[in-house]
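Why show two proteins at once? Because comparison is the fastest way to build intuition. When a single record is shown, students tend to memorize it. When two are placed side by side, the eye starts asking what differs. So, the first record is below.
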Amino acid sequence: MPENETRARLSAKRIVKKDVTTYPRIIERIEDWPIYRLSKDRNEFIREIDEFTYKRLIRRHKKDLADVLVKTIYQERIRIKEDPWKVDPPNERSFWNRISKRLIKKSLDRQDTEAIQVAEDILQKIIHRYSEEIVGTFQIPTFRFAQRFLTAFFNRLFNAAVGKNLRAIFRGRRHLYERLNVVGDVETVRELFKHGTVVILPTHSSNLDSILVGYAMDQIMGLPSFSYGAGLNLYNFGPAAYFMNRLGAYRVDRRKKNPIYLETLKTMSNLSIQRGVNSLFFPGGTRSRSGELETELKMGLIGTAVEAQRAMCQTAVDAGHPDTPKKVFIVPMVLCYNFVLEAPFLIEQHLRRTGKENYIRLKDEGTSVRAWLRFVWRFFSTTSDITLSVGQPMDIMGNFVDANGRSFDRFGNELNISDYFTLNNEITADRQREEEYTKLLAERIVERYHIENVILSSHLVAYAVFELLLHENPKLDLFGILRLPPDEYLFPFRAVEDVVEQIQAKLFEWEQQGNIRLAPETHRSAADVVRDGVKNLGIFHAEKPLGFNKAGDIQSSNFRVLYFYHNRLVNYQFDKIIQWKAEEIEVLKMD
């Protein structure tokens, strides 16, 4: 073979290094990061949480405080008995037994002064126990070690995977961020740190989300560390507990549903935002089991941003500059994957919950370290990127803001955020009003998720194929569809191409209007989109959702996993615009 041809073939096999824009740090000294300053003042911060939570609960439950305490103690003792975790404090049982005995002995069913005092004292002890559990720390040496170690580890693993062998682990010069596409107005988000507190609200699909968002914000966007919630169950793993305890995480125990714990958690978020600590949490509360973009959000932590903004407006009035309060900025973020490691497990959970069917319980591979590392290796060794779409920043009322933090209505008129909390020329606290603001903000975030979402070719093809399957079986409900044997169905390439082409026309229209974001590959011909989508969809699943047969038509190995990826676009209602062509869409049943 001629030398030039050999070189050409070798060159064609090389993976081209992607040019990625990385930003300098907006706050160079870690000692100046808000989260570090909060950690240094941890004891005083906990005292503020205790006092604020206590006053609020006393105000709300003055007449039924004993009932609230009884309910809390009962729920905690049941939790300790039926759902203990290794991370629980060793004195957990003795604490709640002691509290219970004291309540029964001194205050239950009594209304005298001594009984009230004992109940209030017990409330203070419970609140302090919760606040000590929730509030973490931020240690600079630990952060620097984790930053260096994890960055080096992922970059080395990336080089080894790209080079297809471990010897490449020290030879390459590639970086993890070459696999991450960060799109959106990053510059505006960076500028907003000068004008208030930034709260980033990502969608949640995978256990990989937290790591990728944190890495992207640190290594690509140049942002300081955020305060973020970490499930207390993660602390059962010793090394994870060590780092999260020292990297700004606050602990969230989803087993605890009592009003005292929930109020303490919300107070922590509210007061930290007021202190200027930038926050990140998943408003959906957990990973999307169905594969859909979130449509229902948890109001608790979102509401703390609204309440913090009202308090910041009051602080500005007290300081004599009511027209320039510090502001809370809401930044939706959408994570877009061709492949979700836990998809088979998640869709099984969703179907059991919605269909009440007796599905075989699958192990959640997202919690297996070996499975997770195997996924990372395969992810690095392919060209399947992950996209982080940074949404247009808003204030707590859902109005867009500019780089100077100024709010504007939909007609371009500048707004003063304080006006939303003003009654008779005075900033007032109104719980009902702020709950309504929280609902409106949640609806706005959901709306922006669907606009900021980046449509990938894999999403488009999964949707098209599953809609073909639905169209071919109009008399079956969803669970009947999912019980069909995949090996008996073949989807003609031309039929899938035609559906994709119709959806593309609508997507291009929306993109022109600024109502959707499209990945570059979705601008290709429909045939190319189908090929690209099938190649990338669920690329590492043991049963690949879609693949080609020798004739070039499309087949599926798992309809349930295909349904998971189809659901990414289900809320856009493309099924209403598809014009079915009988001669092209007939799904072939295999004999």
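Second record. Ask yourself what differs from the first in the token line.
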Amino acid sequence: MIRTPSTSERAHGLHTLGRWTADRAMATPDRVAIDDRGVVLNYRDLHDRSTKLAARLEQAGYGVGDRIATLTGNSADHVVLFFACAQAGLVLVPISWRLSPREIAQQLELAEPMALVVEDEFASLGAAAAERLLDPPPQAAAGMRGIERTPPAPRRSSRESTPEHRAVHDDDPLLIMFTSGTQGAPRGAILTHANCFWTNLALSRTIEITSNDAVLAVMPQYHVGGWNVQPLLAWWTGATIVLERTFDAGRVLHLIEDRGITTMMGVPANYLLLAEHPAFARTDLSTLRHAVVGGAPMPEPLLRTWHSRGVALVQGYGLTEASPNVLCLPDEDARSRVGSAGRPYPHVEVQLVDPVTDEVIEGAGSGELVVRGPSVFPGYFRDELRTAEALRGGWLRTGDLMQRDADGYYRVVDRLSDIFITGGESVAPAEIERVLFEHPAVADAAVAGVPDDRWGEVPEAWIVARPGVPVDETALIEHCAARLAKFKVPRRVRLVDRIPRSGTDKVRRRELLELWHREQLEGTPVASDPVTS
């Protein structure tokens, strides 16, 4: 009798990530794959645990394309679940623990996962989010470890078809990563196995990671950078990931010296906090060959600070929809081209187009950056309209204004959209505005990101008060704090006579920012139109 092959024995697509742990378990079984705060997991155990979990998920009724959402900090258990999903053809949907219960419920409602895995630390947050849903997904008992013992039975909506039990294909979804939109509603970007394969292959051709590397991972695993900017490449090549749950500057500096960290990735705020730490000047950074920065443009003075310590930061540019790697400035150019985002990664094709006419711009010039290649996502989950807006003519529209010099190096000029980035987190002003409008004293509102030395940008709000309804800045900030993640809460709320708007009623955020800059130069609120009070 012919035996039915197990999950790990089936023929998978050439570019599926479920293959990676099997390859490493055969080549380097005893090498440490993950050092999770002193608890180590070698490649043999990573593969064994992932394979067993994949089989248990299939036995519980999960099939190709089924979604499992998570609410967890960085952990080796989460990595095991990721590779189990890769083997079984499931889709991991990591949700940020920094969000409010309302925001988490929105994402769960959109993703409709068949199960939700909540780490013990976030049990109350997960319960508060579930209370907002009419039909919450089943949760795994005992959190991340519990799903390995007894996966919950999957729950499907009426529009879900019977799950498939087949080999995993290259174009099957692997991740759904949430990203903010210009209208403030969450969008779930689908990343396939092929997307993740090609973006890591491209990364390997620019930022080499070998089996001898010790990679410090501090980016949260609900971010695409927590997977596709170094960690997955490290597990592909047999390196060791030193996995940190959160970012602590003092501990990171200790780990760099103590563990001989050779490469890491962070956002500009991470590198600022490290540079400002009292131990920075005396920490031995000699093993740190690569320090990758992403999420937002790096201030040039901060780049020079790191260069003076002998660390050539690898700058770059990317976006979730491109998996995310698009542009990179390699080590050899780090000092000579300070402020540049670099040139395209291998296997990534870019163009500049006129934002109005869509005419392609040749040579040196500026325009909207558009991207094409195997790492570009297939679309947003169950959102054909936004997918069509993002992918036009085979190109991903980034919404970012770029400048290209005669040598083909790119520099970020501005975002065409209104989204701003604070500490590496993308924030949609419209989302904050909607929350402000929920307050009975707010007649009109606008939000924009203003420059901040520590976080890059922070949210600031302008509101028109409703006549006869008392309100002050403290009350409005508290109103937002009860409904939004901390990093989305306005740092300041200004009362104005009117919000500048276009003829189509769109907020003229540039006017608000111009007013803000004038105030910084003059040191006092500017009595102009709109008038601050």
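One difference worth noting in the second protein: Residues 308 and 475 are 45 Å apart (CA to CA).
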